[in-house]
Design a protein that fits this description.
It is a single chain. The protein contains ten helices and twelve strands. The chain is α/β, with parallel strands linked by helices. The chain has one domain: 3-Layer(aba) Sandwich (Rossmann fold), CATH 3.40.50. Helix 6 links the parallel strand 6 and strand 7. Helix 1 crosses helix 3. The longest helix is centred in the last third of the chain and has 18 residues. It is globular.
């Protein structure tokens, strides 16, 4: 079944061309079912690009999903048209009294800053706290995962000597977890970050478990043992050309950036990068939505009695 998005969202035309299941708000009004309510806190600079990537993955499921897009008010986006933000994005004050089956918190290009120095940190911590009683499951991505681990469990990030940049192999360490259902024993994930998590702190925390790992890029998927928090230390949602665009952008700026690992065939930038992470990205999001669907209360307001 399809995801439910605003009729005029720019991602709509792209996703329709790719045969992603969609349904407009008008059509959804006439269907007597209980769709999942998913809200996306989009912290990435190019919001249209990120929302399209995530909607593509959320749409590859038999479930009907109502999508809300959320932005912070304490940070002014410089890379997305304000008209788009006003038309399609809500703020925390708009949704603070609502309940959601799932929340996705994206990455953000601020991983080299201390958490408390990020201009929207106070607003983000308010959303973290609100999610405990208003969201069944939260899916944190890259810096969003680092921020969530820091806020909820006091686990800090660690600076890397050089940028983790490329497509890295990972192996499953907990094949019985529902999020890992159907995963190959070896799969690939894009990474683009200057910091990593304190894995020893994760391993020693009684509420956390590492579901997959890379000998190069470290832990990839971490779950809270109650099944309501997931932390993904990578960018499985990235398109084929996302790392290429980032690489050429930084090269054009004269920045010292290495070629992304295991990305361009034969390390030749004229070669088309193979899309070798798409299948597991779709599977991961499908599994997460299935976990949410199976366990979230039908009366979503009951979440207030299920506070984490």
């Amino acid at each position: 079944m399809p995801i439910n998005i605003p009729d005029s969202l720019p991602a709509k035309d792209i996703l329709e061309q790719e045969n992603i299941y969609l349904i407009t708000n008008e059509r959804a009004k006439h269907q007597d079912i209980r769709p999942l309510k998913i809200i996306i806190l989009n912290l990435m600079p190019k919001k249209i690009e990120t929302e399209t990537q995530l909607l593509r993955l959320l749409g590859n499921t038999p479930l009907q999903i109502n999508i809300e897009l959320l932005q912070t008010v304490s940070h002014v986006s410089k890379n997305t048209n304000q008209e788009h933000l006003l038309k399609f994005y809500k703020t925390f004050n708009d949704i603070k009294d609502e309940y959601f089956d799932g929340l996705i918190i994206t990455g953000a290009p601020v991983e080299q800053m201390p958490f408390e120095e990020v201009d929207y940190w106070d607003e983000l911590t308010t959303i973290f706290e609100w999610s405990k009683s208003h969201v069944y499951s939260t899916f944190h991505i890259c810096w969003g995962a680092q921020a969530g681990l820091y806020y909820h469990y006091g686990i800090n990030k660690i600076p890397l000597e050089e940028k983790m940049f490329g497509i890295f192999p990972h192996y499953v360490t907990d094949a019985n977890h529902l999020l890992m259902r159907g995963f190959d024993e070896l799969y690939y994930v894009p990474h683009s970050r200057h910091t990593t998590i304190d894995e020893d702190a994760v391993l020693n925390h009684p509420r956390l478990r590492i579901l997959s790992f890379s000998d190069i890029s470290g832990a990839n998927i971490i779950a809270d043992k109650n099944g309501r928090y997931f932390f993904v230390c990578g960018h499985s949602e990235y398109d084929r050309r996302t790392l290429a665009d980032e690489y050429f952008r930084d090269k054009d700026k004269g920045l010292d950036i290495k070629m992304p690992y295991n990305y361009f065939p034969n390390n030749d930038t004229s070669n088309r990068p193979p899309f070798i992470w798409r299948g597991h990205a779709n599977l991961m999001f499908k599994n997460w939505l299935n976990i949410v669907y199976q366990h979230t209360p039908f009366d979503i307001t009951e979440l207030k009695n299920m506070k984490i």
